[in-house]
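agent> fetching stored inputs for the acarbose derived hexasaccharide docking request
agent> found them:
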Amino acid sequence: LGSYYCQTGRDVAVHLFEWKWADIEKECSWLAEHGYCAVQVSPVHENRVITNPPYPWYQRYQPVSYKMGSRSGNDAQFRSMVSTCNNLGVFIYVDGVFNHMTGGGSGVGSDGSSFNADSKSYPGVPYGENDFHESAECQTSNGEIQDYNDANQVRNCMLVGLRDLKGSSEYVRGMTSDFMNYPIGVGVAGFRMDACKHMWPGDLEALYGRLNNLNTQWFPAGTRPYIYQEVIDMGSEPIKASDYTYLGRVTEFLHGKNLGDVIRKNNGQRLSYLSNFGESWGQLSGTDALVFIDNHDNQRGHGAGGFGTILTFFEANMYKIANAFELAWQYGHVRIMSSYNWPRNIVNGVDVNDWMGPPGNGGVTADAVCFNGDWICEHRWRQISNMVRFHNAALGYPVSNWWDNGGDRIAFGRSGRGFIVINNEGSEFSQSFSTGLPAGTYCDVISCDNNRSPCGNSGGSCRGEFTVDGSGMAQITVPSGEDPMIALHV
Ligand code: AAO
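agent> prediction call returned; pasting tokens
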């Protein structure tokens, strides 16, 4: 289930975090035009509505039932989004939360179902007491995970108080697989599986075995759903990312952490060390990995990584370098983060506003309007979206023509399909590079709006065309400071 399906020539996914289905439906035209393969959407199921703090993003990770109503939209809007996007060749991945239901307390969910977590009652599914792990299975004093070094606790106890479903139960497997088969029938292409560290691989295997093939209106007969599993493995715990790779892809959190450290120059790291980036850095094999620079958790200090490491849109220049490297390199299935803005405020290592939900009012999400100050839309940044095109142009062509200065200046090609130079030092430099590209003139896609001739039409910022001669050599001046990169592709 680890292999994914994209329209020919496309590869990259984008997480449109907390976007409404209707807005994603509109965005798919832009995504299709710019070569994106797929969208990861926020959880689709009915969730708890939390008022203290008011309507945090994380309420979406507390299922109340498997009904389709949330602040992103209803079932009809979801179906309309999937079919419009699929018709444009942009596929949908659903964020699936199956490890647990809500934290303690009771109330009414986003689609009208009541629940009482204290009696483990979720009539909207329905789930009752027998469908959750019991104290005989968990055995910690408060029923919560207390020690990540104990794999049994991690999988049978509650993650931060979230009622822990019994994945070994036939009934639970039936309910969760029925729920996954619903969006599969509607036409989604795959799932991000939340909190897989907290589920037994064997239970996931049983669940995946019950999934239908993708809808043949859009996918070849017999296509299995694409599965990528969230497992945070920074190397220090008994549960390993590799325990799950036989089931599908796995999130590789070391990828974003390592690139963050290198670009920030933490602990003496340098760009030139990236010449063998990937598996030999202790990361999963690229064909098992789902990769990203940041995700919705670690951009606000949840999950793993840390503010001094993980790069986000808040540090835009370094963030663009990280994304450019990730998209130019050949490793993993790349997912771009697309965020909303919030007043991040780090006090003693914690973002006191880490809970804040998407732009809007009273728990109702505002329309996504890119670049209005509320919606960051990293996926539309020229330096990122043009590198998605570079990535597509180079798909399947190995890294070639590596060059570095031993410090923080590197260059590499993609076997005649693309070439990038990155300068993470304080001054510009100019030299002749062996690019491996066919002779011709190429537009710098980092600084110019398009890759046509005449190069770009963005006026001042566009650094224009570069000429590659008959032996693949090009004289390139690489700026420093803002956007210190030159990227050329066929
Ligand atoms: C909310 C409230 C809680 C409340 C709860 C129940 O915030 O205070 O108790 O409701 O009422 C999200 C939010 C949670 C939120 C939850 C439900 O992040 O704050 O709880 O929704 O609303 C672990 C899991 C990983 C998980 C991550 C956040 O393993 O699966 O925590 N991510 C996913 C989602 C996430 C979501 C959930 C799961 C739940 O992406 O958005 O939660 O559906 C270690 C472990 C990791 C562990 C982290 C954090 O990491 O290895 O497995 O992640 O700790 O606990 C270094 C280490 C690294 C370590 C890290 C942090 O980096 O190298 O290994 O430090 O110590």
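agent> quick read of the result: Residues 58, 61-62, 97, 103, 148, 159-162, 194-195, 197, 230, 232, 234, 237, 297, 302-306 surround acarbose derived hexasaccharide (CB under 6 Å).
agent> awaiting further instructions
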